[in-house]
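Schema walkthrough. Field components (list of strings):
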Amino acid sequence: MTGLKEILWKELSDCFNSKRFVVLFLLIYIAGIATVYIASQNIRTSVDESTKYIFLNLFTTSGSSNPFSFPLFMSIFIPIIGIALGFDAVNSERTSGNLSRLLAQPVYRDAVINGKFLAGVIMMALMIFSMVILVSGLGLRMIGVPPQAEEILRLFTFIVISILYGAFWMSLAILFSVLFRKTSTSALTSIAIWMFLFLFGSLIAALIAGAVTHINTQTASVNDIMQFDSLFRMLSRVSPGTLYSESIQAILLPSMGTSSPTMMVIGIYSGLTPTPLPLIQSLLIVWPQIVALVALTAVCFAIAYIKFMREEIRAS
Amino acid sequence: MEIMSNNFVIETHNLTKAYGKFVAVDSLNLQLPEGEVFGLLGPNGAGKTTTILMLMGFSEPTSGTVSVIGYNPAREPIKVKKVVGYMPEKIGFYDDLTARENLQYTGRLNGLTGSLLSDRIDGLLEVVGLKDKADQVVGKFSHGMKQRLGIADVMIKDPRVAIFDEPTSGIDPEGTDQILNLIKAMAKQKVTVLISSHQLHQIQKVCTQVGIFSKGRMLASGPVDKLGREMLREGQFNIIMPIAQLAEKVSEEIMKIPGVISVECIGDSTVVKAEDNLEKELEQVMLRCTGLKIQMKVEEFELEEVYMKYFRES
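Field assembly_structure (string):
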């Protein structure tokens, strides 16, 4: 790949020199410290002798009085990182007049877009990985319980899924940066889509599922509820955020035998005590979600790629 | 490595680009021999930039073929871009990087590294007169300075062909002069240069050949003087001698030279119209008749005159 290495280095050094990323790094570290703080306040109540994976509780314990939890934070913050990394990838090069100059050099056109995507993935990996290390380090000092091999593997899987999720938002943002000439348009479009899915996704899914199954909260049987629930989850999986939170819940909460909270409640009420699953079983539960995330990323990137490769490069 | 069947560096055959119904470039046939400085002239929207985009492989032709140093730029972009430098109309640099860092990036993309690269950058910055600004961020550069940096950016790959799209638009006369001198210096090093512009005076200063472009079509191409003669003098040469009054005997002698059409006194000089450039023959006749070596010159044309004539006719 002619030119890919040079472009990748340039992008990475840009990231490290830009204020945008200093702010993002600071934010993610503050969130990491907040996670450890909340865990330190509440971990005693959420852990008892039967808890098998204490270390993972560092990441999943949420406050009793405040709604902050690590998975929730990540599912909001990762899209922001992804969009911040991708929204001006191509159109800022174009409006600054650098794109024509860059492509007049002996580099393949796809090296530009690939280099930017790869640099973004590396930056995200650095951010998420260093945050997990930060939380683990502080947490280890606080609770004094070292992680088991299984827990380390689960955390690693969590990092990989988080990067995949970020890669999706980044490829969506890159797609808009190819489609729109203005960086403001591409940024706003990406954020609008994220906000819409995040705020209204589950509302609309519930609305449709309710209308289709004619569920009545007064008279609904368990069967009705299960029917409603499966349709609701099916619809809300249109949002990548749902795919992500389902996957990381199954990975970080080993006792989640299903990706549906409703099913969990039904299970508990019908007398089934959840026992922690081995990692491979948890992975099997969320495998479809992971594949869907990869597929969404691939589709966005492919459209951006094809559009960019065929486009006329005019200094504008 | 080179598979050129002829010595045309840039060659297009019936090159056409249409955007929907609008034809931006219409059956363009352009042949540019090595070492020429070719000026692509025409009003805004005549299709100059679109032609250049197709030469660079930035835009796919609707029909026809393009060949740059023997390769199709859309199919083998790397081979073309290794030896072709291009300066776009609105050149941009990374504003937060210094002049040197910007050139370093371009150099690295061209496979240059280490001391070879840094020596070349130092040399080029000196040539374009930005040596003392080398470590300033480009964001603070003026338009003219960016344009000169653009020339360094083109030269860093040591190109065989350099394409400049409106290199002097929006630049003060002094800056324009500097840029034209840099382009001239490139041409001296046997670089084939293609310049698109609508600033006729400047084109005439550097170009050995011009092509006049209008509405996607090339109306005429060739050296300015040839175009001028064809357009303004029906292909005839006007040879001018600084003699106010010519003896009848001498004028008869001149008429005897095969190819001479007329001898006229206009103002304080004598104009000999001829079918060919008969400067040498005329000189001999004058020497024989008067015993003097007369300074004479073939009439030259202002590009502007030629250009306007073409547009009036079309």
